[in-house]
UniProtKB/TrEMBL annotation:
NCBIfam families: leuB (TIGR00169). GO terms for biological process: L-leucine biosynthetic process. One of its GO terms (cellular component) is cytosol. NAD(+) binds at residues 77-90, 282-294. Substrate binds at R97, R107, R136, D224. It holds the Pfam family Iso_dh. Its cofactor is Mn(2+); Mg(2+). Mg(2+) binds at D224, D248, D252. This is 3-isopropylmalate dehydrogenase. Its EC number is 1.1.1.85. The record marks Y143, K192 as: Important for catalysis. Binds 1 Mg(2+) or Mn(2+) ion per subunit. Catalyzes the oxidation of 3-carboxy-2-hydroxy-4-methylpentanoate (3-isopropylmalate) to 3-carboxy-4-methyl-2-oxopentanoate. The product decarboxylates to 4-methyl-2 oxopentanoate.
């Protein structure tokens, strides 16, 4: 029996809806396995700007520090899009990652075979499934480099500097190789070393780290090719390790291979057990408040929390299996476009009865 303090940062848009679902699932898991979760809400993002004038109030950072982990929904939305960079809701997320030293962002992209028809790729391309772990560097690179605007005769110029230190690359590479040791032992390091100096350093350091992992096969790939290869043959990938911005982009792409961005969880980790767990999607302002958001990314993020921060492996698997069962039972949110018959259609009754069957199965 464990007792765990979870800081819950619901944020904006669909953040509160998906966090509620994840907290309910954690609560239920706690009941079944005899653990207690103490949820403490904190403000960050647009809602924090509205209520306190700051996107990341000090009280939020303090609560996070006093907690065992963080569950975060999403931040941002059109209401705050005209604020200056520092004042924007997204700055809160970057601030939390940096303040808490959460440099390693694990983004697993696994296809649920019940959703194979929601994958836009041909059936023979996904075969018996894909299972990719994107290891994204999270506290460096262009997100945290020097940035600004400069006046010039010909108008304004804006810049964002991409840079990486050897230490930053080394620690994320170690994380990727350690992960690969528990998987298929293949790492693809994604960079733009044909153009960027920071990528050339990245490639050198990743290669050096690989010498400590003789069992792991390392390949290097340029990011443009990687974006293409993900669509052409996603099964070639096991672990992909990459920079902050490339990881951000490639993980959204990978999510669509699994059927929807609403499915992919993530864990943001530093040294030690503490972590922040968040879906990879954003605040989805277009569907916020309608209770139609897919909660699976947030629910699976809570499973990652149990595994990575609390060492509750069986409990994490239980949540993951429950998600698989629900999908196998035919439940779908609207973001999943597969051949499942929507209950509003003519074949409604057939679909409803298959749902009832699913419920019976789940209860048994
Ligand atoms: P988004 O991920 O919010 O939405 C992209 C599309 O995917 C939308 O059509 C949305 O409806 C859909 N979608 C996303 N999550 C879904 C879910 N769980 N269920 C069903 N559909 C879902 O990306 P965006 O539109 O580029 O960004 C919107 C806002 O969110 C911006 O302010 C952005 O900065 C912010 N954002 C925040 C985070 C975060 O807090 N971690 C991540 C990405 C974007
Ligand atoms: C994500 C988001 C964030 C990022 C934004 C909102 C700062 O897109 O978590 O994927 O780019 O890291
Ligand atoms: Mn993103």
């Amino acid at each position: 029996m464990g007792s765990f303090k979870v800081a819950v940062i619901e944020g904006d848009g669909i953040g509160p809806e998906v966090c509620r679902a994840a907290c309910e699932v954690l609560e239920k898991t706690g009941e079944i396995f005899g653990h207690e979760f103490e949820f403490n809400k904190a403000l960050a993002g647009g809602i924090a700007i509205d209520e306190t004038g700051e996107c990341l109030p000090e009280a939020t950072v303090n609560l996070c520090r006093a907690s065992d982990s963080i569950l975060l929904g999403a931040v941002g939305g059109p209401k705050w899009d005209d604020l200056s960079g520092e004042a924007r809701p997204e700055t809160a997320l970057l601030g939390l990652r940096e303040e808490l030293g959460l440099y390693a962002n694990l983004r697993p992209a696994t296809i649920h075979m019940a959703l194979k028809n929601a994958c836009p790729l041909k059936e023979e391309i996904i075969g018996d499934g894909i299972d990719i772990l994107i290891v994204r560097e999270l506290t460096g690179g262009i997100y945290f480099g020097e940035k600004g605007w400069k006046g010039s005769k010909n108008g304004m110029k804006a810049y964002d500097v991409e840079s990486y230190s050897e230490a930053e690359v080394k620690r994320i590479a170690i994380r990727a190789f350690d992960s690969a040791m528990n998987r298929q032992k293949r790492v693809v390091s994604v960079d733009k070393a044909n153009v960027m100096e920071s990528s050339r350093l990245w490639r050198r350091v990743v290669t050096e780290v690989s010498h400590d992992y003789p069992e792991v096969e390392l390949t290097h790939m340029y990011v443009d090719n990687a974006a293409m290869q993900l669509i052409k043959d996603p099964r070639q990938f096991d672990v992909m390790v990459t920079s902050n911005i490339f990881g951000d982009i490639l993980s959204d792409e990978a999510s669509m291979i699994t059927g929807s961005i609403g499915l992919l969880p993530s864990a943001s980790l530093g040294e030690g057990n503490f972590g922040m767990y968040e879906p990879i999607h954003g605040s989805a302002p277009d569907i916020a408040g309608q209770n139609t958001a897919n909660p699976i990314a947030a629910i699976l993020s809570s499973a990652m929390m149990l595994r990575h921060s609390f060492g509750l492996i069986e409990e994490a698997r239980c949540i993951e299996n429950a998600v698989t069962k629900v999908l196998e039972s035919g439940y779908r949110t609207y973001d999943i476009k597969d051949s499942y018959k929507i209950i509003k259609s003519e074949e409604g009754r057939e679909s409803v009865s298959s749902m009832i069957m699913g419920c019976k199965e789940m209860g048994s």
